[in-house]
């Protein structure tokens, strides 16, 4: 249902919920369903300390898939209970507020925004942002938001990438990877990425400053590919995919290499015992590799430092942000599935309000 | 051949050499052979800057096995060339010296001591030690030597074990593990170890202060064992075995756990593609685990700090050193094989001179 501009009445609110879990495979319309619920936006029906908002954008990220399996073997995010609305990082525009810190028209972010057209939430779960002039709102869900700081943490805080480092990034045209590679270039690294389509190879090399890139669906002998693209070995690996690629990387790391484990999208659609086993962890000993997993939420205390640095890069045109926008609440399922098919380029975002 | 006490003549020197590589399995008498070679100990036949010595003890450590496979898929130690004498950490007594810094009777250590009865080496590859009163020489190959600093690095520098940490140690009655657990106890941790015999379980609990220990050959359901012994999860894992146990541990780690990868003895007798694949590395992401491999040689700059600390613990009786001594050069093969059969307790040492 379209937004009601006065927004002081009830609305028919469409929202995605979990009808059944998908332990394996890509979740589809049997698992995730759209329903319409009545939501009161009248001031007298909103509790104190709450805010109602119209959802503008929802960030579509691989980790969400791990909350839809019904299993406890993925990332450590809680499973979304059956029947409940799916939540994700999202951005909204305040309709009414029962908290003096928020006013009608404010732009707010929430890490547990409902995938719906409207929302009512306690204000302490919302963060107000003041968009800078000339910066389109979706950037606050990409380079200036969660994917941006994720890339920044993995390349800098964990990967410790320095001038001259040989940096490898998998899922390099994804929401995080595309920024990670550009950040590594800013630091003077040699950067190569792997992606799932030739178009993405072109994009990384021509628009994102990557030194090289390859399509892992074409160059399926990963060992040969890494031999070719990293003649001097790998110093930093920003891992977004896990599995087989991680194993091959461990045969190409240099002494003292650092591996930032950001996510393992190749493994999310399988139960853990079916996941790809990595057989060569002994290389971590002999080459004294440091491998560290991270959840960006643990690094938000660095947000000011991040945003200051990233702001400069954006201003100087050193970071090229790419968004793949899906339109309308109906497109959620398609946008989520796109993460697993290499069909998206850059940050996948669902736009709910034209 | 017994040592010649005047030692100024030629000797018939027995030494172990690599006859053929053992890519899989435990190396045996087809791969490693004993031969007798004439060695001149006459002063006029020793080059300047060299020292001759009688070998007293050789440290028998799992890493040596990775130098006997003929493959480059183990630790990063070089393969010992076919036909050449095997080298290891060893201790000797100087017979003659053509370096003013060494004198007859000095006790010396070398990280590439030949597994032989006598040796001639450049003096810069030898380290002179002055044994403290009351400290038996084998301690300089265990708690005060390489295994000691290895344990100290893994528990402290990498594992960052602190009072209250739940610490798990595999191969816990081995040369490194037995010291690692005691160091963790000194720091106030709760320590549980896994070993391959009931005798070792008893030893760890009764003589080494471990809070608990289990026999992995009896409690073969590792998941059930770790559930039982770590009801509050694992904060620090000192890994000496790799493979299946590492995988199970990753299902029991707490958020922010630290894993020191010291070695992977369960995997040394297989080529890498036959090694156990670890399928649940995704837990490293969700639980923000730090996993770091290390080679103790990179930490010798901390030797003074280590020896000062360890010296105090030994003096205060907080570290109980255990040695399994094999006697005579003929016993080398048996002592090496014992590392893979759970038949040794504590540091395995080959004694060459009665």
UniProtKB/TrEMBL annotation, chains A, B:
Coiled coil: none annotated. The keyword Oxidoreductase applies. The keyword Transmembrane helix does not apply. Pfam families: ADH_N_2, ADH_zinc_N. InterPro entries: ADH-like_C, ADH_N_2, ER, GroES-like_sf, MDR_fam, NAD(P)-bd_dom_sf. GO terms for molecular function: 2-alkenal reductase [NAD(P)H] activity. It comes from the Eukaryota. Gene3D superfamilies: Medium-chain alcohol dehydrogenases, catalytic domain, NAD(P)-binding Rossmann-like Domain. Residues 25-350 form the Enoyl reductase (ER) domain. Keywords: Oxidoreductase. PANTHER family: 2-ALKENAL REDUCTASE (NADP(+)-DEPENDENT)-LIKE, PROSTAGLANDIN REDUCTASE. This is 2-alkenal reductase (NADP(+)-dependent)-like. The gene is LOC104215496.
């Amino acid at each position: 249902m379209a937004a009601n501009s006065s927004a002081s009445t009830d609305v028919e609110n469409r929202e995605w919920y979990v009808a059944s879990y998908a332990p394996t495979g890509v979740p589809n319309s049997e698992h995730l369903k759209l329903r319409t619920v009545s939501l009161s936006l009248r001031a007298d029906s909103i509790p104190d300390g709450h805010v109602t908002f119209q959802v503008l954008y929802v960030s579509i990220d691989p980790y969400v898939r791990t909350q839809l399996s019904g299993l406890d073997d993925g990332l450590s995010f809680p499973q979304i209970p059956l029947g409940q609305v799916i939540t994700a990082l999202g951005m909204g525009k305040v309709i009414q507020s029962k908290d003096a810190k928020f006013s009608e028209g404010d732009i707010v972010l929430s890490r547990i925004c409902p995938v719906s057209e409207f929302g009512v939430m306690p204000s302490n779960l919302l963060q107000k942002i003041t968009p800078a002039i000339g910066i389109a709102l979706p950037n606050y869900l990409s380079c200036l938001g969660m994917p941006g700081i994720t890339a920044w943490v993995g390349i800098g805080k964990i990967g410790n990438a320095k001038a001259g480092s040989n940096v490898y990034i998998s899922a390099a045209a994804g929401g995080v990877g595309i920024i990670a590679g550009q950040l590594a270039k800013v630091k003077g690294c040699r950067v190569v990425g792997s992606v799932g389509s030739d178009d993405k190879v072109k994009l990384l090399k021509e628009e994102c400053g990557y030194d090289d890139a390859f399509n892992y669906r074409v160059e399926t002998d990963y060992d040969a590919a890494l031999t070719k693209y990293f003649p001097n070995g790998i110093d930093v690996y920003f891992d977004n995919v896990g599995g087989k690629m991680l194993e091959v990387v461990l045969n190409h790391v240099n002494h003292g290499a650092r591996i930032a484990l950001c996510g393992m999208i190749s493994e999310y659609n399988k139960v853990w015992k079916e996941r790809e086993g990595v057989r060569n962890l002994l290389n971590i000993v002999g080459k004294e590799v440091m491998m560290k997993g991270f959840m960006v939420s643990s690094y938000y205390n660095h947000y000011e430092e991040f945003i200051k640095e990233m702001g400069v890069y954006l201003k100087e045109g050193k970071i090229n942000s790419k968004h793949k926008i899906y339109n309308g609440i109906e497109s959620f399922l398609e946008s989520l599935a796109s993460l697993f098919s290499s069909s998206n380029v850059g940050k996948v975002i669902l736009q709910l309000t034209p």
